[in-house]
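User: ok so my PI wants both of these folded by tonight, can you help

Assistant: No problem, let's get them done. Here's the first:
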Amino acid sequence: MLNSQKPYLKSPKKQPSPLVRKISLDIKDASLKPVLDEFNQLISTSPQNMRIPFRDEMERFLVMFLDFIKNKSAKIDWDKVSSPSPNNILHYCQINQNNTSNNHLLNKLAVLKLNGGLGTTMCCKGPKSAIEVKDGLTFLDLTVQQIEYQNKTHKANIPLLLMNSFNTDKETARILKKYSDSSVEIRTFNQSRYPRIRKDGFLPLARSFDADSSCWYPPGHGNLYECLNRQGLLDELLSQGKEYIFIANVDNLGAKVDINILSHVIDNKIPFLMEVTEKTKADIKGGTPYEHNGMLGLLEACQVDKENLNDFMSVKKFKYFNTNNIWINLKILKQKTSAESIKCDLIVNEKIHENTGEKIIQLETACGSAISSFEKSKVLVVPRERFLPVKNCSDLFIIRSDLFDIKNGELIPNPARMFKTIPTVKLGPYFKNFFDYSRRFISSPRILELDHLIVSGNVTFGPDVTLKGTVVIIAPEGCQIDIPHGSILDSTIVTGNLRLLEN
């Protein structure tokens, strides 16, 4: 395993910070001078051996901040927004599916998984990639197994890159020791650490370099392009003969290397390919590809005015949403990052500070929005099987069920299910916590014939339970329902109080 993070450089003594001189040239509003003064004070608190990289990082943040100040009232011209034209849309069923003779192309590929997130939505501490999702295997275990299989079967050398955040880096380094004997070359690098700013006054929460972690945030996965280039990984991959990189969220269990897609982007010289899939009711707020003034772009719900939100969520206007599975030509990526010509749309994420209740702002970018910076980019409509994320315990319920098996790190749909659609599952607050969820399901129910499941209240499931059709289980306040061992619930509603008492 190779960790590709670069050591910080030492700063010459008494070197003045050019921060104010560089940024103030673009600032006309005198009220922002206290913001710059605050950032220079923040930089002065960093250790000497970290002064230059920290100053550079704060400069990059302030460039983003200045863009926010200049354009915070700018709005997209909704009348010029449309779904992608047919010549920019490819369909998976139409690309060549017989590419087994092209397996040698796998040596031109690197895989990058976005590993900066924590398991907080499932009330877990540490990297989300460390959560056990099926058969005792974690997201990271399955990722490594997939690439091991590809490399061994096709005599390839696909490296795995993990983009960590300051939240996940230390624990990920500890976890990666378990793969020391793996044939997969694993490299890690960190995305930037940017300061949260107060909504009132725009001053940073952090008052010092080593301020509490709640004062900082990772600025979204759009940050990866800059980090890949600045930390030398782009040059390293190109020197090893890699030509394309496949990027995906580490929690998307459907995001596997596909030789058919790789062959297509290489044969057709596509510089940037975004995988999309058809919307369902659960996806209507997901980022969607669009065209604006003849260019492809990525539109997120938070970028849409309230009066246009229904139009944005309409399946009639926008049929597809972004899976965040992305294929990029590395040579072109290097050219564009070196020229600083990759522009990712700014996402203003307003939040409430978890400790103080103060209103704060995080300025973020999404990697998919870089599609507008690549000429001749395309979107590819893929089957739903390539988008199997686990965002909460309802998703986990589906993955752990008999709908899927695991083979060589890949989720394989159970052919015994009559329909390819995935059941709609909504588990209530009692199941939000990963550990509570695991305690309430002694074993995963059989759901091959399930269409819809709603569970609300204090409910537990015994072993060997089968769910079919539409099942609704509601335990009112103060009640508990224990679904007995071996139960078969077929299109039924269970409510009230049902306790199983031990003798």
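One down. Here's the second:
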Amino acid sequence: MKLKLILLCICVAIYQVNCSDEKTKYERKVPEGQSHFLETFESDEIGKVWIKSKAKKDGVEESIAKYDGEWAVETSSDSVLEGDLGLVLKSKAKHHAISSKLEKPFDFTEEKPLVVQYEVKFQNALDCGGAYVKLLEDESNLNLEQFFDKTSFSIMFGPDKCGTENKFHFIVRFKNPVTGKVEEHHAKKSDFPSTVFSDGKTHLYTLILNPDNSYKMLIDNSEVGSGSLLNDLTPPINPPKEIVDVNDKKPESWDEREKIPDETAVKPDDWDENEPRMIPDSEAVKPEDWDENAPEMIPDPEAVKPDDWDVDTDGEWEPPQIDNPKCTNGGCGKWTPPNIDNPKYKGKWTPPMVDNPNYQGKWEPRMLPNPEYFEDKNPFKSLFRFSAVGLELWSMTENIYFDNFVIAQDPKFAELFAQDNWVVKSKLENERADKKEESAGKEDDLDDDKDEDKDEAEEEVKDEL
């Protein structure tokens, strides 16, 4: 009876979970406001809006140089919203590259914030691969079909992982106005939960870069990194005013010794360098139960000669030696007193150290004016204008799902867009995970009760017998 009642409860619980698994219909919601780019993947736009690269990657074997990784616009495998499509990286161990033009280029000279936001769902736990975006520089020769790893970008942003190393990139490319050289500058490492790569949920990645050069990096609307373009990038955007003269050499006569031995010091007459550090303890007494005549090792009395022992080939058999049990309490063999520190020991005499009258300090090479030096007090305005967004990725894990890209100048617009889309999706995913956990717990309880009923039935049979 007890088992039937439990089964009924479980069936009701499973029915309730199944009923509640009816998917909410996806509804595209976009707040009022302007954006430079907004992509929700309402239909398959590959080849129309999103252009796959036909280029080859430089510096790799011909067999893997092509960007031949497959892309698709489809729902995620366990989507909580019916009809919610996204861009999916479908292949593993292949190079992928796809990009799309912005509605209008983003120009930093307008001195308005840059907001980059998008969703990523690792449908399979990520082992090694990236899910970052590149904001492609607005060049006259920009050809999306030739997008590859060397294509110029303004900013790179997003998550990346390989093995135990987790990264959340924010990389800025900046042109030195003196030399014309372009260099990458990396934000300091962010501290964020590694579960974003393995929990199978949709996560939201946001970058906010302000005209005052401050930036914030967020995951799921929580800040995980912040800083300034002026102070928190490596290497710094503004190079040092002076650099070390690599040709400067320390003079041979340069004296860096702060202390030197006192040449006037004399070893004291009573200093005996021959005294040993340790000496026998003259006050030690041999223990009464110490037996100097007893050997420390004796033949094992319980040892037995092997049956296959051949005297002619193996020699005369002797039992193995073991510690003499008589030596356990006291000791055996010749007794010697233990060693102690020698109170007369002084060691080798050395003269005391005194201030060096010729000390010149620690030598350092001279500094020269840096020929590449410049100072840009507002590097935000000098960032490369960009006109496309691209995904150029290698991954050992397939089925990475991207959705709801936003590039805008108003952080509030991106926040409201996330509220209407990612927050809804995330809430449904968390509710489903909680119900699955609850259902699994009830099934475990059922297994335990089945075992109890089986034990009770066995006891009843025994009693009847």
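The chain has five helices and 29 strands. The mean pLDDT is 91. Good luck tonight!
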